[in-house]
């Protein structure tokens, strides 16, 4: 990596409210943001051409270690069950020569090119691959460290308890550099939600790490697991340290039962993640927000053995969130964008985020009239600044490893 730009001045750019401003960047942070002003001496100057200024995007949930991005098309003939997909993926990764380091780097570069500057990725750890996938993504994080703030979740894609030795591997993964402890469907995958959640929370408590759990379990089963999880959050004082990803059950429960769970989720400051899939029930976005719950967005997998869909563009994910939740008004589409910006930074715990003085200088310029227009049109990124440094121009990476 080359030395980052030390000083940068963007002028003739517009805020979401239409105000024309200039932005002064010193080292890696926003030093000034306000009415048009002359550039400080010795500063690199960029004319924004009246473009819309947005904060760098946040990918709240993806799996960069397992992507097939940039490789030949994968012919998907996997069975319909979750266990079919897990077994198929494990075998494919074992026999195909899939390289988590190369693939995670390719996808990370594509994310940055499209304006993502913060990213949380789940990385498979199991008794077959052991820590190999984690080591590949750790190498990518090191390579991209100047331009992409990456959180790594150690994820038990094959289950925590059903494969003996997994808990010990996860302790090693957290010691080696994983930031967050993952979990997966304690009832339907591990077959014992009490024991599975006990093991997960005990490890989180020992390692002092937050938790991000995949909860695909439907209806009453999912609600039962969620209640057990919330009991442990409360008992261990882990308020504000847990994310429940997907939480499909919250879109299928009777209103009274759902709202009782949402009230507890809000009280315990548990955040919710949605990829807004069209084929599954989803937590109610506006009701969650009205209750004070942080709910944010992510792509989930991108071009992997699970699904051929997905692109590393958070404006497209915001659009898909808007479509799934029938968001049509401009102010509603601003909520969709919030799911991949402020709310995602808050849910993942990314610090110093946003368009404000003192925040890390992560900026995106797009030719759009409003935030809603940007979400719907998804224009080429005119300029991307990450950590105070220009990393993409006119949709192409510049000076990035």
From TrEMBL:
Superkingdom to which the source organism belongs: Bacteria
Gene3D superfamilies: Metal-dependent hydrolases, Urease, subunit C, domain 1
Domain Amidohydrolase, chain residue ranges per copy: 46-392
Database matches in Pfam families: Amidohydro_3
GO molecular function annotation: hydrolase activity, acting on carbon-nitrogen (but not peptide) bonds, in cyclic amidines
Name assigned to this protein: Cytosine deaminase
Source organism per UniProt: Caballeronia ptereochthonis
